[in-house]
Predict the 3D structure of the following.
Amino acid sequence: MRDGRKVLTARDLLGVPVINLVLVIICLIGLWWLVSASIENPDRYLPSPLAVAMSSIDMIEKGVLPSYFSDTLVRLVIGSIIGLAVGIPFGLLLGINRTVSDIFYPIMNFFQSVSGIAIFPIIVIWWGNSDETVLAVILYTSFFPIAFSVLSGAREVPMQYLNAVRTMGASRYRIIRDVLVPGALPHIATGSRLSIGFAWRAVIAGEMLAGREGLGWMIFTGQDADLTAQVILGMIMIGVTWIILDHYLLRPFEADTIERWGLVQR
Amino acid sequence: MSIIDKTWIGIQRRFGRQRIRKFALGSIPFIVLIGTWQANSTFGWLPPVFIPELGAVWEAAFTLQEDCPSTGAIFAMHNDCLLTNHIFSSINRVALAALIGLPLGIFFGILAGMNRTVSRFLEPVGVFANSISGIAWIPLAIVWFGVGWMTTLFIMLNTIFWLLFFNAMLGVRGVSKVYENSVLTMGGNRWHLIFQVYLPGAMPSIIAGIRMSMGFGWRALIAAEMIGGTSGLGFMIFTSAQDFKIEEVFLGVILISLIWIATDRYLLAPLEKWTIHRWGMVWKPE
Amino acid sequence: MVAKLTVEGLTHRYPDEYTGESVHALDNINLEIQDGEFIAVVGPSGCGKSTLLNILAGLLPHREGVVKVDGTPVSGPGPDRGVVFQEHAILPWRTVARNIGHGLELQGMPKAQRQKRVSEFVDMVGLTGFEDKYPHELSGGMKQRCAVARTLCADPVVMLMDEPFAAVDAQTRITLQEELNRIAMATKKTILFITHAVDEAAFLADRCIVFSRRPGRIKAVVDINIPREERVWATLVSDPRFTDARDRILGLVREEVGEDEE
């Protein structure tokens, strides 16, 4: 019997050894400084790290940065939750019934290739440059990864488990609850991670295109107003936010689920 | 059995009963969709500004091309051949970005992966670069290159490069040391290592990376054309949306997805099949 | 007296998945199983034994013929016909105890009562001490014991077993057979047992049904008149009642297989 949880090391916490990460960051900032100092008109093309830091302090003081950050995050959370809430049941439904999945799989495939970005102009004609438009784009983009993941997860649940529970008189609800969902859980976890990743990319793009306040909007207007420091600040924030989200939240959750189930599935 | 039964069984044998069934079932939503679309126009449920008429979308293709002088002019990308111009602009950028970005990414990725210390050092760089989505680079690209084709090319190039760099690096790192050692003990030098051990060993990761990066790159390209471009399908659908010419938008969107479907189905998926599936190597995405 | 399980004129055809041609799996099966009987079904590969079991279990719908359990026609899976599958099919994400109690849980039995019953069956199949283990921590034989306990615990009217010991090693198989025999004695359950192994059939069954090759028909029924208490491998191996029955069954099966190989 597996004994307790494994011991967490510094490596687990950061994905790479601490010293490595610190060294890399220092080197990158150093390189940045050098390049910035050696080109003409750095303020426009590559503001120095100092300039970017100053810009961030300024924007935090004005309360603007936290508000952009939270706007974007809120959209991500809402869009992801709805996307998962729609995608998971849909994927399960398709996974249970071969006929249903044969019907819907091709058209899902087709619409998946119409990316959320491409669908933006259509939605903008319908709903204008609004939060609903951005949300719709997020939803559209994040729906497919989770639906397809759950679909394949449900399909991979061995038929005999379903049969076994049916012969014990389980209702359809119990079949889904006792067998299908636990069996598909690893795929649900992976699909959620992929789905939220797509949603993140969509929210940034949506804000840029629809002009809604947030991190995406911040870098877009920064370019427009010739505030390159703001642009770079925004890019760094976008990158760091995703790293934190992905490496410290989503992946560990997924790995934990798979590990528990992997221990438990043959 | 009657003649009809015999013929039907013959057809089933030839194409496979399952395939026929799947094809028939899979077509149903498409038929329903197109039917509803047409019904919408016929019965006027939603105004044509929201859902254009089926025919209008088809006609828009010709309207956009009407000033185009000749077929030769199409390929010369004459200014008045609007639709084909946009299509070719986008496709050209894809091709250019792929031609430059794929080899560069693979090359540097392999190099980085070969030296274990260097790759461990560069891994955070790769992770970070890939965390800033291609789309988030657009404003900076506009600062550097202005609005135009250079920006759009850069965005796609950037997306492809980093993804392939990361995948190639990880792929090489994942090659078991045993293979390296066996070639070295047979008297191989560095070049042998690269082409006979690292490149093939990293292939699953690289091929998967190619497929993924083309997908991400294509989408980033469209976004870049929308925000910072002056031509291309992305630019076309964005400006048409601003003019409320929804039939052009629909046309553009359909073309965008058809181009991707065709590329993925007839180029990328077969590539995967001919290389790594044949060699029995399949790569599970991270 | 109403037979526990009645099959009349059961014929089963299905279209082949790939060519669409009709496959004739079962042809005019008639059989009656009385309460408490242990019936084995043997036959060459592809003769339709599993098809028969799946139809009886309600996992496969039937169009021609009548199938009744306790007088009621069968129309879908249900707790009255418990099934033990070849791949045991116990859920990997539930402990042994929760797997065994699953049937009762689905029937709505309250927890306290359930736990009592579950521990009875845990003991009956010899899994005491393993109640809180997960299937991946058990050996093949133990998993199959868990599956048997699960089916028994739900107290079905009839127990259907589809080659349950086929995936288990020879030593464990012998042990499981003797255990099943003891359980059959103790619970007096009506059991239909499908197997490839002729001596397993002869060891366990009161009556052994031999199937012909496809389309599956009942070729013969062999009675095995040995009291349950005397069914122990050590003594039975040399008992003429056993060896005669086994040899007869083997001969019948070989005839069917022989025709196949021509």
